Amino acid sequence: MITDPFLARFQTHLDTLLPGWPGGRFLVAYSGGLDSTALLHLMARSLPANLLAAAHLNHSLRGPAAAADQSFAQKTAASLGLTFLTGQADVPALARQRRKGVEEAARWARYDFLGRTAASFQADFILTAHQADDQAESVLLNLVKGAGPAALAGIAPRRPLLARPGEGAEVVRPLLPFDRAELAAWLIGQNLTWVEDLTNQDQRYRRNALRRQGLPALRRLNPRLNQALGRLAALARAEEVYWQGQVEKLRAGLVREEGPAALALERPALERLTVAEQRRLIHACLLKIWLTRRSAPEPMTFATLEMTLSLLGRRRHPGLDLPGGLRAAVTPQVLRLSLASRLS
Description:
The protein is α/β, with parallel strands linked by helices. Helix content is 50%, strand content 15%. The strands form 2 sheets. A 6-stranded mixed beta sheet has the order 3-2-1-4-6-5, with helices on both faces. Helix 3 (64-79) links the parallel strand 2 and strand 3.
């Protein structure tokens, strides 16, 4: 019988999020920080040690401090009798190579590492320690960027690791209903320690600036800001599920393949759709093409969609180059989307 109310609450949520979870194999993304330390200990108290492993990636960003974090993470995993899997990525070099910011490059490196590590451990699920504060920050960051409804869905509780569902482990975020403060209170109450990443204080990073400056002001307006933004994310996520089904129906009736990386949309039928349907369908088609050749930054921006939609105002256009190595052209009967010729 569980006598720890917080652990019981965690397991009850896990029952809802992931029915039948005690039969799976789990890999915890473990940095050694507050959130992932709470997650690792909660899972270690919920499963036999042979079904659980901790995975730690050194991002090559903080020198000796990163090495100290890795040592702490390894000792914590050993104290729990868990398999410890580690790797290293040169995130600054990766950011230059992929023409991304350091935060985005670090995220890509993390999930690449987690995917490979999950395969070696034969994990069914990868657990990350995103919690309610992270969800609130993500929704607000997407809002101030002017992102679309899909981005307001924030961090998904579950998602495939890869773009192709059914391949590889699934990513699960079981801490999303929990605030950072209550995770800290539980760890302190259990006499458990964690490490602090000093880069979390660096306000050159947008998330840190929001955390230190914007969120305190917003919480004065609504002390239950996490819950409010969590509801917004849940509503937006349900809307996205609906739209995914609608777009699949539209694709079945309006889109035909003209090769491995070329799609033709029937223009007369496309022009009878609402603007919302047009944007959703074009977005889905461009993303499908881009996924065949990830050689450039993802082009899915509002400007990309508007550039493509602008072609519907012309009777004919030989071709318009789009961000991400994509191309769009129109005839009176067809909107044709493909890779740009230089990438074909």
